[in-house]
Amino acid sequence: MRRTRVLLALAAAALVAACGVQPTGVVPAGPGPSIRATTGPNVLGGLTLYFVSDGRVIPVTRPTEGFISPEGALTLLLKGPTEREAAQGLTSFVPAEVGRVEVYAGDPTAIVLPFSMRKLSNQAINQLVCTTMAATAATTRIPRSPGVNVTSPDGDMYFQSCKAD
What we know:
Strand 5 (148-152) and strand 6 (155-160) form a beta hairpin. It is elongated and about 95 Å long. The protein contains 4 helices and 6 strands; from the N terminus they run αββααββαββ. The strands form 2 sheets. A 4-stranded mixed sheet has the order 3-4-5-6, with helices on one face. Strands 1-2 form a two-stranded antiparallel sheet. Mean pLDDT is 77; it is low at 27-43. The protein is an alpha+beta fold. The longest helix has 17 residues, at 2-18.
């Protein structure tokens, strides 16, 4: 009987103590959800492409089924943003009519463009470089170099790194 009284007294004390909890205001919890990848260059079941938003190159993760090669990733990049991505303000500075871009594994990886690099803005080249690096990182052959060589009929750009937000 004495044990029951002690337990009831403890329960009553806990209830009374909880009555003093005061409500709090809004607590900042960081930025809201975005279209950016938040766990690295690739998210499980997704492929990271780089598009332009407000003049900056940013990562966008698209869901995928199975493996996509670096060439496949660049093909998706050349198609531009989806309707939903475009509605969120994303665009591409890489013209869709550029043709087939080839990627050669190595250290560093090499991108071979079938057209003059002079046609591309810095953002467009960065889109190609960042997308290639993200797609290459998804393979088992992760390069040691944090850059990509870019080759075109009018010359080469050696060791371009990804400059994305």
